[in-house]
Amino acid sequence: MNDRITLSRRGFLAGTTVIGGAALLSACVGTGGAAGGGGASGALTLQSSLSDPAPKAALASVVKSYKGKVTLNTVAIEQFRAQLSTYLTSSAPPDVLTWYAGSVANDYASKDLLLDVSDLWKSGGACANFPPALKALSTAASGKQIFVPTNYYWWGIFHKKSAFAEWGITQPKTWDEFLAVCDKLKSKGISPLTMGTGSTPWVASGWFDYLDLRVNGATFHRELLAGKHSFDSTEVRNVMKHYAEILPFIDPNAPSYSWQEAVTPLVQNKSAMYLIGAFVTQSVPTEQVDDIDFFSVPTIDSSIPSAEEAPTDGYFASAKTGNKKGTLDLLAYLAAPKTQQDFIATSKSSNLPTSPDVNTSGFSPLVQKGVKLLAETKEITQFFNRDSSDALQTTADTALTKFMAQPGDVSSILKDWQTAAEKVWKA
Known about the structure:
The chain is α/β, with parallel strands linked by helices. The chain has helices at 53-65, 77-89, 103-110, 132-137, 161-167, 175-187, 204-215, 218-225, 234-246, 263-267, 324-335, 337-347, 365-376, 384-387, 390-405, 410-426, and strands at residues 44-48, 70-74, 96-100, 148-152, 155-160, 191-193, 271-277, 292-295, 307-309, 312-317, 352-353, 379-381. Helix content is 40%, strand content 13%. The strands form 3 sheets. It has a 6-stranded mixed β-sheet with strand order 2-1-3-10-4-11. Strands 6-7-5-8 form a 4-stranded mixed β-sheet. α1 (53-65) links the parallel β1 and β2 (70-74). α1 runs antiparallel to α12, α7 (204-215) crosses α8 (218-225) and α7 (204-215) crosses α9. The radius of gyration is 22 Å and the shape is globular. The chain starts with 43 loop residues before the first strand and ends with a helix.
């Protein structure tokens, strides 16, 4: 979903080690990777939405270690969300702001409200060796980079290794293999898929996003959520045909579960698989965490480039900053490997570092597999509401939960979805 989810260390980052030693400080703006940062003259303001205790304290700690003058203002996330536009359009906006990559950042960039941070992505810059998919996610329509990603997490189909072994199941690579696995599990009296759409209907969007990525590709998916295609289209109807194929395999209790409650049948071996974000481990009993594995949603069309959902957090900066050099230096510090490692370790976050230079050798095998997945994929999207808006998420919740209950009404559901989406786009 759209808000940061923090976990206990036992559930995710067990064994994480903090990198020791600071990188040498470069004299060039945009390469300041040292603990302590660049310390450009002129006080800066960092407006933060990280109001939960652990990430709030973690950001305060890394900011304190920066040698420049930074005033950190923390605002509750929903208040921050409501006031973000006001922050950026004011006569004296904050220099740097926490937020998400994707549609919101791109919208502000199109209005010339965000600082061009392309220097950080050039050779020698703090983000120069970040994965290409992250660079694409941080690039506005103008071709300029306007975002600095510092942490993200992955989605996948999670399952228990011991259960798969007991049932004689191996991870499928293609859609046909996946459906065959589901058939085999159902024949054993096991619900192949768990899901929690009761109080958390947004979970249903995970399957929609991935099926659209596998059938139509990341470019179409982004354009669809931006209003450039219709939900009542041949492409989306094709997506829903594949969605209909998995409906018989979903736990019939899914409409009564929250996403957390849907974990229970998984850990009890009553359901086999769960498409969800890596934050799922916070609801897995301690003694079973090491038994959790995942695989990516299988390929449907081999001609479509690989794409993964990876909600991405980080920073953008105001185009009106009075201290561009200092702002870029602060962003470079926040993107530096040691800063990322310190923040993730201190905040006990489920998120992964975006810098490939962070030492992940102390991470669990599950986390290392997630790092590898995101580093190798061709495209990164986020989640339905992050690639569109919270308002459009509501239209998806209505459409998809109705579809799950009444798949035969897909034509009218897609027409209604498009009508509701058009109201959002015109608002």
